[in-house]
TrEMBL record:
It comes from the Bacteria. Residues 4-243 form the NAD-dependent epimerase/dehydratase domain. InterPro entries: Epimerase_deHydtase, NAD(P)-bd_dom_sf. Signal peptide: none annotated. This is NAD-dependent epimerase/dehydratase family protein. Belongs to the NAD(P)-dependent epimerase/dehydratase family.
Length: 316
């Protein structure tokens, strides 16, 4: 790979991926529309972390602008991370925005890639939200898709759109279902960021639900590695879980955070909102076998790194 397009390059995962590609000697075209689902200043800080690398060209615009000649010329791999994230905000009138950013914009991208003389490999970011609340032991990629939020519905629909382009046109698309990514630059609306910030201020930590809900947490550089591996090794139409290989209850995460900060967190339990999964648990064996994906950063180490980063960032 010599040239890549990263959509959503100023976001949490996108900025880390862009940095990794540049460090690997790849020329990167980055696109970000600065959707105001959270403080744009955080995204600008992410861009500042990338810096003025001579191999990086940035376009501040939405995919709907359709400047494909500028964006796709000479590109070998497209990493499509641009999306409107967040379960709790996807209800009501906001659903139309989720459809626009998560489904319609993706279809525009696929159409543009299909028109290239040689279509680039396309690695699409999906979410464990497509599964809903998981049952049994580990959840593999063949599990039923039962999203419990409008956000999850848009991610499932996006996957279906990608699948029909693979079947109809052989477009080289692979999809990655992330399981709760965390680490430095995590969005301020996400749980770990909120928990650390509340502890820093001495405020009670607000937990929605009883704290017994569990998650499979993925450190951001492991998610980035999954993208790189998928761009190199995945076959058209393949879908992979990207997890941290460990299911942990939220209350236990808070205890780890408290230990890192040398405090005993004060917890305020609030009613759980509609659309939250009670359990996620990734079976990552397919990604291990097909891509060579193996998560490298433990939850304890990842939380330590996120805390260290947040202590140097403006409060948000």
């Amino acid at each position: 790979m010599t040239k890549a397009l990263v959509t959503g390059c100023a976001g949490f995962i996108g900025s880390h991926l862009t940095q990794r590609l540049l460090n690997d000697g790849v020329t990167v075209i980055g696109i970000d529309g600065f959707v105001d689902n959270y403080d744009v200043a955080a995204k600008l800080r992410n861009l500042a972390e990338i810096g003025s690398h001579p191999a990086f060209t940035f376009h501040s615009t939405m995919l709907q602008a359709e400047r494909w000649k500028d964006w796709l010329d000479g590109v070998d791999v497209v990493y499509h991370l641009a999306a409107l994230p967040g379960v709790r905000n996807s209800w009501g009138k906001a659903f139309a925005e989720y459809v626009s950013h998560n489904i319609l914009a993706t279809q525009l991208l696929l159409e543009a890639c299909m028109q290239r003389p040689k279509p680039p490999v396309i690695v699409v970011s999906s979410s464990s939200s497509v599964y809903g609340t998981m049952q049994g032991t580990l959840t593999d990629e063949s599990a039923p898709l039962r999203p419990v939020s409008p956000y999850g519905v848009t991610k499932e629909a996006m996957e279906q759109v990608c699948s029909v382009y693979v079947k109809a046109y052989g477009l080289p698309i692979t999809m990655l279902r992330y399981f709760t990514v965390y680490g430095p630059r995590q969005r301020p609306d996400m749980a770990f960021h909120r928990f650390f910030r509340q502890m820093m201020k001495g405020d009670p930590v607000v937990v929605y639900g009883d704290g017994q809900q569990s998650r499979d947490f993925t450190y951001v550089t492991d998610a980035v590695e999954a993208n790189i591996l998928a761009g190199r090794h995945a076959a058209p139409g393949e879908i992979f879980n990207v997890g941290g290989n460990r299911e942990v209850k939220l209350i236990d995460v808070l205890n780890i955070m408290g230990t890192l900060m040398n405090i005993s967190p004060k917890i305020s339990f609030q009613p759980g909102p509609a659309g939250d999964s009670l359990r996620t648990c990734a079976d990552i064996r397919l990604a291990e076998q097909r891509l060579g994906y193996r998560p490298q950063v433990s939850l304890e180490e990842g939380l330590r790194r996120q805390l260290a980063d947040m202590r140097f960032q403006p409060r948000s």
